[in-house]
């Protein structure tokens, strides 16, 4: 990716480096890394297209209501919400290449937390009007409501922020990222993913998270860039003591 090229050229840039960006793009590796630090993740299985599980195996392990998605895609591309054996069979039949994940479907409240320089900011709740936060809900104006800050009590907010910081650090992230969770109807907090290239429109979730902390869009962008500038000056100083 671009980060690898910039790293190889010795260029300084804002955001996560090539290693952490590659790690967080791999959903399975992200889950394993976070779980090793005590963060709860959704039960699931990862498989290559050539070794697809049989529908009955999936149902026996996770039930009929599952999520089938690519292991390394963003923006909910390829996301399939399955509710029956017939649907699962159809979805598995069309998988021809790549690595995929099947997870038990968790119902609950979707939450996003911006992290800036290792510190979690406000918690944003995502409420898609369709009930599913898919590609259309993410990128079609008016299809999703965002609550910033999320209506949560202080103790739960702090728990979510602490989990976001732990996941961010565990995956070697730097500067900024968005950490996504689902607060299940079972009252458990599950990590969904870490996005190291989150949307940066004023209406995107990272800026929303920052505004919860009194950081406006201009101040957020300045803080993000300043971290890269500081690395540049530190590297130059080390070369020219």
UniProtKB/TrEMBL annotation:
One GO MF term: metal ion binding
Domain annotation ATP-grasp: ranges: 31-226
Keyword Ligase: yes
This protein's UniProt keywords: ATP-binding, Ligase, Nucleotide-binding
Pfam families: Dala_Dala_lig_C
Annotated family: Belongs to the D-alanine--D-alanine ligase family.
Protein name from the UniProt record: Putative D-ala D-ala ligase
Species annotation: Opitutus terrae
The encoding gene: ddl
